[in-house]
Amino acid sequence: MSSHRSIPNVDRISNLPDSVICHILSFLSAKQSAATSILSQRWNPLWHSVFTLDFDDQSFTDFHTFRHFVYSVMLTRDPTLPIRMFHLKCGTSPGCDPHDINRFVPVAVKKGIENLILDFTSAGHYFLIRLSPTLSSVFNCGRKLVVLKLKTIIVRVLPQIDFPLLKTLHLEKGCDSKRF
């Protein structure tokens, strides 16, 4: 006679404090984090409170859908919460537009980011960033910036840079330089 012990079906993760759940969600992409909102009413608002935003257009059918998702995440977040890490990877979905990128980044910069990662290696071409007054703030958000990684981005004119806390600077072309 075998003894069959039933394992109780207990949701231990949902019993964790919100701060711990948000920390766990910070290891997911923004899309995966948003998907957890269907788990329960308690989880629904939690993904809006993560301090790490990781956007990758690879899992979207087109850039229009991706752009809409990024805008909705940025608009529905609690405006008082900081963004500690902003990772934006673009270029795989059709219609990737640098003008939209130039709108996403300044919003994140205003939140006092510590880690900024812009990766356009999948685009197959260079992204030229034209430094408007709002976008040049990327290079002067340095009061809190610790990590700056730019991949496959061309900045024609570099403004004065002030990164007193910067510990990691990673600049990578990622494309054939003969295109210029």
From TrEMBL:
<protein>
    <submittedName>
        <fullName>F-box/RNI/FBD-like domain protein</fullName>
    </submittedName>
</protein>
<dbReference type="Pfam" id="PF00646">
    <property type="entry name" value="F-box"/>
</dbReference>
<dbReference type="InterPro" id="IPR001810">
    <property type="entry name" value="F-box_dom"/>
</dbReference>
<feature type="domain" description="F-box">
    <location>
        <begin position="10"/>
        <end position="63"/>
    </location>
</feature>
<dbReference type="InterPro" id="IPR036047">
    <property type="entry name" value="F-box-like_dom_sf"/>
</dbReference>
<dbReference type="InterPro" id="IPR053781">
    <property type="entry name" value="F-box_AtFBL13-like"/>
</dbReference>
<dbReference type="InterPro" id="IPR055294">
    <property type="entry name" value="FBL60-like"/>
</dbReference>
